[in-house]
Amino acid sequence: MWNILNKYFLFAVVYRVCFFEPVQAACGTPPLIVNAHVVGVKVIYEPGEEAVYSCNVGYMGIGRNRIVCPKNARWNKPGIKCEPKPCPIPQVLENGMMHSTEFKFGKTVYYSCNEGYILRGKNSSYCQSDTMWSDLQRSCEPVRCSPPTLPMYGSIKFSNPHGATDIPVFGESVTYSCNQGLALIGNETSFCLASGKWSQAPVCKEVKCPSPQKIVNGFLVFALKRNYNYLESVQYGCVQNYVLDGSRDVTCQKSGNWTHVPVCRAACILSVNRARIFYKGKKLWIKNLPSKRVQHREMVAFYCEDKKHNCGYPVLTQCIDGKIEAPSCFQEPSAAAYMFNWKLPSEITQC
């Protein structure tokens, strides 16, 4: 009996090998691709059968989108890669900023306004699958300020004139002025701030300055001894042979003090008796200079001799409040040399 079974099994094997086709291997489900899917995906693919990939919504394919089930039933690596579709760079938000570095499907950009501006609309947009941005309607509007307070005894001028219904906005300014005779204490300009409030407004006050002081060797020109109002002015002058050092006019300031009071400076008397000088653009014999006097801050040139090169040259000196000195190189000539102009540094060839 055992021999019969063995013979039957051997016959079955030989019959199967000789008369039936061998069973071929098949491929399973194609490999997964990020952001893609297989069109009409199946569980089993026969050798030679294709699998076709398609990118998901919002993505675009790069590379071949088909793979074929090989005879060894092992899928090759797909050649397609799905990348997010790009969206155009969003329009610049006037008076605002955009915060993002990527402009492609699925990404979000955020918006904010500059100081002094308020965002109207959503603060973000995202890149959609159709490569268009969502929620594009937005703007940055300036902060509004309520009308500024009118100062007592003063007036306001707007930098940007408004109509009856217009409201001042961030960055605009007003200029204050006071009625005549009153001083404006503080900044004359006020600005609409990012907080919606105005910067500190000035006040208009009555200011008096005391009677102006007297100055040495000087006098006040037709000035009464009284208190003076803000911006009133008086004039100073000097007695003979003195000149003013400073402005002739002084004005009452908002601090209640006068502007800088001038000083009377003395003229200078040249101490030499024999010389030729250069003064006010002219060569003069010193005897022809009235009283040998020059005024404060005026310049005089004396002539010195360069003995090595046998030539003359001028050296400047200046009168300062009654004091002047001849240059150290100057030598006053003798009476005879001066009388006959003999080799005077001012008369010989100049260096």
From TrEMBL:
It comes from the Eukaryota. Keywords: Disulfide bond, Glycoprotein, Heparin-binding, Repeat, Secreted, Signal, Sushi. GO terms for molecular function: heparin binding. CDD domains: CCP (cd00033). It is found in: Secreted. Disulfide bonds join C55-C82, C113-C140, C209-C252. One of its GO terms (cellular component) is extracellular region. InterPro entries: Compl-Cell_Adhes-Reg, Sushi/SCR/CCP_sf, Sushi_2, Sushi_SCR_CCP_dom. SMART domains: CCP. Residues 25-84, 85-142, 143-206, 207-266 form the Sushi domain. It holds the Pfam family Sushi_2. Its main location: secreted. Residues 1-25 form the signal peptide. PROSITE patterns: SUSHI. Binds to various kinds of negatively charged substances such as heparin, phospholipids, and dextran sulfate. May prevent activation of the intrinsic blood coagulation cascade by binding to phospholipids on the surface of damaged cells. This is Beta-2-glycoprotein 1.
